[in-house]
Amino acid sequence: MSLEQNNSTSKTEEIRCIGCGAVLQSTDEHEPGYLPASALQKILSGETENIYCQRCFRLRHYNEIMPVQTDNDDFLKLLSTIGNTNHALVVNVVDLFDFDGSVIPSLPRFIGDNKFILVGNKIDLFPKNTNQRKVKDWLRQQANKVGLFPEDIFLVSAKRRTNITEFLSFLAQRAGKKNDVYFVGTTNVGKSTLVNAIIAAMGDIKDLITTSRFPGTTLDRIEIPLAEGNMLIDTPGIISPNQLAHFLAPDQLDLISPQKRLKPVTFQLTPGQTVFLAGIGRVDFISGPASSFVVYADQKLYLHRTKTVNADAFYEKHVGELLVPPSTDQLAEIPSLVGKIFKPQDKSDLIFGGVGFITVPGGITVKTYTPNQIGLGMRRAII
Questions:
Q1: Strand, coil or helix: what is 372?
Q2: Where's the CP-type G domain (predicted)?
């Protein structure tokens, strides 16, 4: 599978940003695809090949996000067009650290009778001794629980390009010459980064899709021609209300989103003790023998142990200052912490979607908290 080298663009056609796919325009800076008229004129006259909107340019060069007006309903309508064809192979990308926040239970409604592949991204962030078979089994079980039955499952790292070659070989064989390949997923799962990794593996191309840790960086579908005559299509990310990322400012999101392989932090706890994961997560040890609680989260995330009897007062006093995120100016926007009791029978992982997980032994009772229980869960330990 290789890229078709065709970079010609008619000036009479709509010119799209090669970063986000939005149609370029110079009339409204708050709408997708905006760039100054002088910059657009340079593109039209052929003076420059940097066909980026102002938003993508600043994102690529300054890591600066510029908000634009987008409509999630429009995104869903765009995805629904997949169901109008019987010649599509759908690749659904989910975040292994935030399955509940990144899963799309209604996917079959959008894609019709087309088959789909489930790809779990960010496997590189798990410790080296992670049993990937267990991760894949867990991912399939979670998908089945919400009514999704993928044709196959792959674990990859779009950022580190782990398992990309194997996935690409499968994709080339499965798609053949008839099927366009659609990449779908919620925002912030690394979908466009995965497409970039595949593009790089297929051939030499200079212009890659805009990617960022900020949600919603692909604003319109981006079509990439393949040599076989079919297309590789990156669609916009669906905005999920079950993602913690949408309640945090970009600088705060950087504090909780794992960027490197997670290193365990162990707490020896007895019943009546609590561990805070900054101000967006909490676990209370309710009952059981003294136990090791092993936290897997980004090293930048502040962890704090205290007595459960003092936990509420400690949180009220320090949230937004010591317990960050959230910051003080976000407290009114982020939902309150709400707890849920878990009673693992065997060694298990307590899941904090989008943040990490805590491995605990069986035979204990705990209560875990996140804002409005977003991303809370438990699974059989994968390490």
A1: coil
A2: 76-241
CB 382 within 8 A of CB 126: yes
What is the C-alpha radius of gyration for the chain, rounded to an integer number of angstroms? Answer: 22
Quote the pTM value. Answer: 0.78
Dist. CA 86–CA 122, nearest whole Å = 30
**Where do the structural domains in the chain lie, given as residue ranges?**
9-69, 72-240, 255-380
State how far the Cα of 264 lies from the Cα of 293, in Å rounded to an integer. 10
H-helix or E-strand containing 72? Answer: helix 72-80
Domain 72-240 top-level CATH class: alpha beta
Q: How many residues does the structure list for the chain?
A: 383
Alpha-carbon dihedral of residues 42, 45, 46, 47, nearest 10 degrees?
Answer: -40
Phi, psi dihedrals of residue 308, rounded to the nearest 5°? -60, -35
Q: Categorize the per-residue pLDDT at 231 as very low, low, confident or very high, splitting at 50, 70 and 90.
A: confident
Angle subtended at Cα 26 by Cα 23 and Cα 31, rounded to the nearest 5 degrees: 60
Reported as a single tens digit per residue, the pLDDT across 206-227 is 455 555 445 555 556 677 777 6
Closest CA to 295 of 283, 306, 285, 310: 283
